[in-house]
Amino acid sequence: MAGSSAGPNGVFGQRVRQELGLDSDRPGALERAAAVVRVYGAGGYTGAAFDVYSHNDPVRITGDDLIAVSMLSIQIWEQGDSSLRPSSIRTLDSLAGSITELLAAVPADRDLHTLTESEFERWLGPASAGDVLYWLLRKQAAIPRVAVYKLLARKRLALFPIRDTVAQKALRQTADPWWRPW
What we know:
single chain, mainly alpha
């Protein structure tokens, strides 16, 4: 099954437990992990609310989405390796019809780890709407990889995992598209 490594007992779950110190028998491990989650959830990190910031139109990339991804350290600036360039934002406007069509073809109410193999292939596999959308944003809109992953996560958080240097290091995963091995 496509998402078998993403569940709580899969590779991702194991790495999360390891990063939080829950894979040890050390006293207080659970309490330390709970404290990390509480700080994050209470807004200790600016990204804590990126997925619930303002209105999230399920089939359009809007200004609210650009503000939301800025909460995940994506700057709007012409320079920088992971910045959203104003020129790319203008290109998003010209691609709005295609983006809407592709987002409409990817369900907003499904979790990656629950997909059957055929559902994964239909929505996220090679030449699927999710795959075409990823490459449309990367190539035609010239949006840097990290910013594309964060934009896609904003639109379909349960299907498109965020890829940044922290996640890449923790998961030791470098393939594109990022969600394929999950």
